[in-house]
Specification:
Elements (H helix, E strand, L loop, with lengths): L1 E2 L2 E6 L2 E5 L3 H7 L8 E6 L2 E6 L4 H9 L11 E2 L1 H6 L3 H10 L4 H13 L2 E2 L3 H12 L6 H9 L5
C-alpha cells in the first residue's frame, strides 16, 4: 500500500516497507551507508545490513539479528570504504596501487565484488596488511576503520 513515495509489501510472512526517497532514508537511518539497505529497529536500536544481494539474505539476517546492536554497516560500497580512510591514508593507498602488488590486488578484488565486507577474513587481512605496511598509521585508526567511522 502506498505511503507517499514509500510502499509496503508482503513477502511471504514478512511485511516490508520500501522507502524510496533518499532524504527519508537518511531521516530514518542517520548512518545510512547506501542502497540497498535493510534496516530493523528493535527496542530503539537500529541494526542494518548494507548492500544485501537477495531477499533471502535479508530474511536470514533479520531472523538472527546481531547481538551487539551495531549502528554501523558491515558491508560498504567501494566509495564508502574510501570514506573510512583519512585523506592522507587514501592518498597513500591509491598511490601504492601503482607500486605495491598487495594493494593492487586488494583494489582489484574490491572492484570485482563491488563491496567491502568488514566481516570477511580477506578484508580483515587486507586492512591488517595496510596497517603493517604503514598505510594505516596506528592500531587505533585500524579499529576506527573496522568500526565504520567515516573520515571523508
Amino acid at each position: 500500500m502506498p505511503e507517499g513515495d514509500d510502499v509496503t509489501v508482503t513477502i511471504g510472512s514478512d511485511t516490508v516497507r520500501i522507502v524510496s526517497g533518499h532524504d527519508a532514508c537518511v531521516a530514518r537511518c542517520p548512518a545510512f551507508p547506501g542502497y540497498p539497505l535493510a534496516l530493523v529497529e528493535r527496542d530503539g536500536v537500529q541494526d542494518q545490513l548494507a548492500f544485501p544481494t537477495s531477499w533471502n539474505e535479508v530474511a536470514a539476517w533479520a531472523a538472527n539479528p546481531p547481538t551487539n546492536g551495531s549502528q554501523t554497516a558491515s558491508r560498504y560500497s567501494p566509495a564508502d570504504f574510501m570514506r573510512l580512510l583519512t585523506q592522507e591514508e587514501l592518498d597513500a593507498v591509491l598511490l601504492a596501487e601503482a607500486t605495491d602488488t598487495d594493494v593492487r590486488r586488494m583494489w582489484a578484488f574490491i572492484r570485482a565484488v563491488g563491496y567491502v565486507d568488514m566481516a570477511d577474513p580477506l578484508t580483515q587481512n587486507s586492512l591488517l596488511m595496510l596497517r603493517q605496511k604503514g598505510y594505516i598509521a596506528t592500531g587505533e585508526r585500524l579499529q576506527q576503520i573496522q568500526d565504520g567511522v567515516f573520515q571523508l
